[in-house]
Design brief:
Elements (H helix, E strand, L loop, with lengths): L2 E11 L4 E10 L2 E6 L9 E4 L4 E4 L1 E6 L12 H10 L2 E6 L10 H14 L3 E4 L1 E2 L12 H7 L4 E2 L8 H13 L3 E4 L4 H4 L4 E2 L2 H6 L3 E2 L1 H18 L2 E4 L5 H12 L3 E7 H5 L21 H13 L4 E3 L7 H4 L16 H10 L5 H6 L3 H6 L15 E11 L18 E11 L2 E5 L2
Length: 426
């Protein structure tokens, strides 16, 4: 049994509101003790971490791979390697693969493949409807028993309100969380960026706030009536954030995620038709971005996600209207949040909370905290390192990062999963 003592780190643990120098002792795959001036067992490997931050391993609730079916985009193995380089020790795999993860066999396949080839913890997400068609309910109860973390309809909303009502009612009966992308396809139309003066000037069709608000408001109402746990995926508009906050004040179990890139970029970053900045939902206006940052502080956001969506170069090196939506995000999730904290939008403890205890508490996961008896999933990172992102240097199979060429702060030095170092920066 391996014993590791990490000394002198700045311990950042949102679960205990700890942000202070200290030591941590890991025995086997569990945290044995956290404190100051811990004694070192004779057999312990001792690591001096002075100058580094020590935090729980990150939990990313939204990761796409191409496996099964489109492994040229990303495999579980390549995504996992990129994830641990970014400090992500647990990641949830979206169901929109080929075939769709909509039955027990595919949930078990993802779990087995993750255990065999992944460096971090892999959690399958089950499809909400068969084939993600938005019509027929998938085998939610059986997939839940097989290990699906939650259920999602991928990039699409469930268009039929009656179907959504039944899905929420059944998910509640099996104690499952439903996640949906709040987007009304009839309002979004063929939009490719945020609707407004800039999209009109660029000659591009836009997606307005109303597409998100209408869909989100409907599902909040249905979730409240069903007593369901609803996770609205990648909220990008302040109006919907206000509706979520009001719903939670009424006692609902409605939550939302925000993608790190929506906190960092606005519609102007599309610039000269940069397809690496073509994501869904689109980057919104600067006032909307600032409202998202404010929502981080007022508790409206449960988790920040990477929204990792790898696309091959041939699907990005096209005219903006024709290019695929999607951005790589695994290796920039933590640096984006550290950079925003450095700019004063929130403190580092709050940034880490949205990447650890926020998602962990939502799904009652034991990881995401630095407490005695918790899984030894943790990261050591330098919050002051300044570096420039180069898409070509990313470990991910995909290089379609909107952070390409951007200066960021914060870099992971080491990542531990279940008491074993799975990444060390050379």
């Amino acid at each position: 049994m391996t014993t590791t003592l990490i000394r002198g780190a700045r311990i950042i643990d949102p679960a205990t509101d700890r942000d202070e120098p200290g030591d941590i002792l890991i025995v086997g795959d569990k945290i044995e003790a956290v404190g100051q001036n811990l004694s070192s067992p004779n057999s312990a490997e001792t690591l001096d971490a002075k100058g580094l931050c020590l935090a729980p391993g990150l939990i990313d609730l939204r990761v796409k791979t191409g496996e099964p079916g489109e492994e040229h985009r990303e495999t579980i193995a390549t995504a996992s390697a990129a994830a641990v380089a970014g400090g992500i020790t647990t990641m949830a795999i979206m169901p929109d693969t080929d075939p769709v993860i909509d039955d027990i066999a595919l949930v078990e396949f993802i779990a087995r493949r993750g255990a065999a080839r992944g460096r971090n913890r892999i959690c399958p997400i089950g499809a909400l409807t068969q084939g993600l068609n938005g019509d027929a309910m998938a085998e939610l109860g059986l997939m839940r028993e097989a290990g699906a973390l939650y259920f999602s309809n991928g990039e699409n909303a469930v268009p039929n309100a009656g179907v959504m009502k039944r899905l929420l009612a059944y998910a509640t009966s099996v104690d499952a969380t439903v996640s949906v992308r709040p987007i009304d396809a009839t309002l979004a139309g063929s939009g490719v960026m945020n609707a407004g003066a800039l999209s009109a000037k660029m000659g591009l069709s836009g997606i307005g706030h109303d597409a998100e608000i209408v869909a989100g408001q409907r599902d909040i109402l249905l979730a409240e009536n069903a007593g369901a746990t609803l996770l609205l995926d990648q909220v990008s508009t302040p109006e919907l954030l206000s509706l979520i906050q009001a719903s939670r004040q009424r006692g609902s179990n409605v939550h939302c995620t925000v993608a790190a890139h929506h906190l960092f970029f606005d519609e102007a970053d599309v610039g000269d038709y940069l397809t690496y900045c073509k994501v869904l939902p689109p980057f919104r206006s600067e006032p909307a971005r600032l409202a998202l940052l404010e929502a981080i502080n007022n508790g409206s956001v449960t988790a920040v996600v990477s929204a990792h969506d790898p696309q091959p170069p041939e699907e990005k090196r096209l005219p903006f209207e024709e290019a695929s939506f999607g951005a790589a995000g695994l290796e920039t999730l933590l640096p984006a949040m550290v950079t925003l904290a450095h700019h004063g939008h929130f403190n580092l403890l709050q940034a880490i909370r949205l990447l650890t205890t926020g998602p962990a508490d939502l799904f009652s996961l034991p990881q995401g905290r630095l407490t005695e008896g918790a899984p030894a999933d943790l990261i050591l990172f330098d919050a002051d390192t300044v570096w420039t992102c180069d898409g070509e240097d990313l470990i991910s199979r995909s290089t379609n990062s909107p952070f390409d060429g951007r200066e960021l702060r914060g870099q992971v030095h080491r990542t531990m999963v279940a008491g074993e170092w799975v990444f060390e920066r050379s």
